[in-house]
Design the sequence.
């Protein structure tokens, strides 16, 4: 074995091992394995050898070439790993350090009020149910005791879906944007039976628009079904809920006899407000100048016909239902006077009226401390 080559090999391997960066490594690679490198030069000598010599020298030179290539590869990986470790150490983030800036963004008043309501009703044993916003005619109207010819349908300004072929008005499959959350009453009774205690928050749609009406708005439906439920339960529940929500005992409520096809009897609830420098704030004499009533919710005892439509035994079960306008609740509690601003997406409005994302409403802390 040629000792000069052996010496060169060990020198090269030592230099590779000692290399502190990839540039040094590359210099070593070029010196040995590059076009003019010494190993390449040795490989070229094979052509001039006799077959016997080549049989001995060939594997030896190839082995040297492989040893050097392997050493370079191994060292390269080691250098890269070390570089990565150093980078990770240098760029380490201490997540326990206090944030340098307050997080941006805020909770929309509608979301805040929905959270508050879920909290209040959870405390009274209600669970949250939901239904589709694209609803069918049967759930939105018929099963709620509004057959095709019912005049109450006209009051809903319904958005119907076009292009459904030759559909007949009132047919169970005619699709629409739900005009209220009441279809969730039907879905809940059909799916879960009785007894039942649910609220159903969500978006509803009516072709209607002014300062206090938008084509899309939010409602929360409430439904209680059990044995022996009567109007007293309804009244207590609404009063308890509204006092908890407005966080005051002196809110002025006006309960009016009303009519909904799906409740009998029906009660409509308004809350009194007064005008304070252009804002609506709670309280005062609704009938006096500068005062008013805001219609907040419709309610009543669930009509027998509705129980029957939902497949319940109307002789055994009774219940009450209510539907609250969430946006209106927000307007009154937080003193806004134009509903349209809710949906403008104006950041300044949100910064003014929005809520701290970290301030989750709880009953014990008060349900809605403004940010
Ligand atoms: N769904 C009715 C509305 O949107 C409100 C309501 C709900 C009335 C439940 C009675 C019972 O106007």
Sequence:
């Amino acid at each position: 074995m040629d000792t000069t080559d052996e010496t060169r090999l060990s020198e090269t391997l030592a230099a590779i091992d000692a290399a502190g960066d990839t540039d040094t490594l590359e210099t070593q690679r070029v010196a040995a394995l590059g076009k003019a490198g010494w190993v390449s030069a040795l490989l070229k000598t094979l052509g001039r050898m006799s077959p016997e010599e080549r049989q001995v020298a060939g594997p030896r030179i190839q082995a040297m070439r492989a040893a050097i290539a392997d050493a370079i590869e191994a060292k390269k990986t080691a250098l890269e790993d070390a570089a990565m470790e150093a980078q990770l150490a240098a760029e380490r983030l201490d997540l326990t350090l206090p944030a340098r800036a307050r997080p941006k963004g805020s909770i929309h008043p509608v979301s805040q009020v929905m959270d508050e309501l879920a909290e209040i009703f959870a405390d009274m044993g209600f669970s949250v149910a939901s239904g589709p916003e694209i609803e069918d005619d049967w759930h939105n109207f018929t099963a709620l005791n509004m057959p095709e010819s019912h005049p109450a349908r006209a009051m809903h300004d319904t958005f119907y879906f076009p292009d459904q072929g030759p559909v007949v008005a009132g047919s169970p499959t005619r699709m629409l944007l739900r005009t209220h959350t009441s279809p969730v009453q039907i879905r809940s009774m059909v799916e879960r039976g009785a007894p039942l205690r649910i609220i159903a928050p969500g978006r509803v749609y009516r072709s209607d628009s002014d300062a206090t009406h938008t084509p899309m708005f939010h409602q929360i439906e409430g439904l209680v079904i059990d044995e022996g439920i009567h109007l007293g339960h309804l009244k207590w529940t609404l009063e308890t809920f509204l006092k908890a929500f407005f966080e005051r005992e002196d809110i002025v409520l006006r309960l009016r006899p009303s009519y909904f096809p799906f409740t009998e009897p029906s009660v409509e609830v308004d809350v009194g407000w007064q005008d304070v420098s252009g804002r609506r704030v709670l309280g005062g004499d609704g009938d006096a100048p500068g005062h008013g009533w805001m219609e907040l919710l419709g309610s009543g005892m669930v009509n027998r016909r509705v129980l029957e439509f939902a497949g319940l035994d109307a002789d055994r079960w009774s219940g009450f239902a209510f539907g609250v306008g969430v946006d209106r609740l927000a307007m009154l509690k937080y003193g806004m006077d134009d509903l349209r601003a809710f949906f403008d997406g104006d950041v300044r409005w949100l910064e003014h009226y929005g809520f701290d994302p970290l301030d989750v409403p709880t009953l014990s802390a008060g349900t809605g401390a403004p940010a």
Q: What stands out?
A: The pocket of phenylalanine is lined by residues 180, 182, 260, 263, 298-300, 321-323 (CB under 6 Å). The first helix runs from residue 3 to 18. The beta strands are 127-128, 134-136, 175-177, 196-205, 216-226, 253-260, 263-276, 279-282, 291-302, 318-325.
